[in-house]
């Protein structure tokens, strides 16, 4: 039974293409398919230039203004160049999370490999941009200001580990929250189906109501987690503008 709950997280190979190197085949999985579908859905939502805005266009404009406000509040005018990145992250992660709420739909963001890959890429990008702008002075963020130089051999490793752990925490937070919600929903839905199969229609109303509540909660979590990921990315990008 426990294995059945985790079946929804299985990655299935749909297409396999043999590459030049025999040991490195190119595979198109259900995870890849959902990523492509998410990008196509975002492009369709962004396609709207009506004189009188429709509902989707109004929604996209609200998202646009809110994310731009987040970037401006945390990065100021110099950080406007990062706005397309932050907006793209929010839309992409949010769309993947929302699509994953539909039955039999694979959710790539429940896999730590994917979320950690995103967060690690962001951290590497921040470090490279910081070094490009501040040269090797960027490494001063690993030594707290005003700290005695004698403590450098202790503080630098601690600060370095703390800084690098951002990638793990950023990706793990997203995957863990979504995984917990999906598992809870799968367990309760399985319990409800068992009750219905045994003819306990009246008693099954309670878990149905719980499932409805969890569905609404999961929709909120899907958006909130995308927002948190984008917000933390914006905060991390501040290191490329001003050294702390």
TrEMBL record:
A single MF term (Gene Ontology): proton-transporting ATP synthase activity, rotational mechanism
Keyword Ion transport: yes
Localization annotation: Membrane; Mitochondrion inner membrane
A cellular-component GO term for this protein: mitochondrial inner membrane
Transmembrane segments: 24-46, 82-106, 112-131, 138-158, 178-203, 210-237
Keyword flag Electron transport: no
Classification via SUPFAM superfamilies: F1F0 ATP synthase subunit A
Domain of life, source organism: Eukaryota
Main subcellular localisation: membrane
Listed InterPro entries: ATP_synth_F0_asu, ATP_synth_F0_asu_AS, ATP_synth_F0_asu_bact/mt, F0_ATP_A_sf
Pfam families: ATP-synt_A
Its membrane topology: Multi-pass membrane protein
Keywords: ATP synthesis, CF(0), Hydrogen ion transport, Ion transport, Membrane, Mitochondrion, Transmembrane, Transmembrane helix, Transport
Protein family according to the UniProt entry: Belongs to the ATPase A chain family.
Name of the protein in its database record: ATP synthase subunit a
Biological source species: Aplysina gerardogreeni
Lineage: Eukaryota, Metazoa, Porifera, Demospongiae, Verongimorpha
